[in-house]
Task: structure prediction
Amino acid sequence: MVELQKILPNRFVLDSSFLVPLLNPAHKNNHLADRFKSRIGDSVVNAVNLGETFYTIYDLARIHSVGIESVLSGYGVMVEPFTADLARNLNELRRIDRLRRDEQESQNVKRDSIKSLSLGDMSCLSQAMELGLPVLTGDTHWFALNKHGLNVVLIDYRDVTLSF
Result:
């Protein structure tokens, strides 16, 4: 088992794929996300990922953004703007994503099964690059990006080998 508190700080960049199950009690992975409640104080989410979280949770559970903001604030999560500095990282992330897509194509992955980064994904990864923080995510396809030059620590919140 990995002792999370021994290898990582108590500060993360939070991806919407983690926040949605954390903030939606009816989500099937809520219990796995809940394990991190006491560890996300002083963590950050950028405004793009917060908007993605609002949109998804409202769509799934009709929970309004005001309630979500209140809960995140109670945890000590800080909302950061998506700045021009973060936007400048998008070209590098696009290059890395292109390499990964090319790799999948060379492995004859069906076109509709190829994993690629969305703008929300890139905004989260850009925030992590800028702050030098690990990302708490549920997007496991991101892990394959490290061999293409992504230099971000990724943590899958669903990893049951993580102990606290």
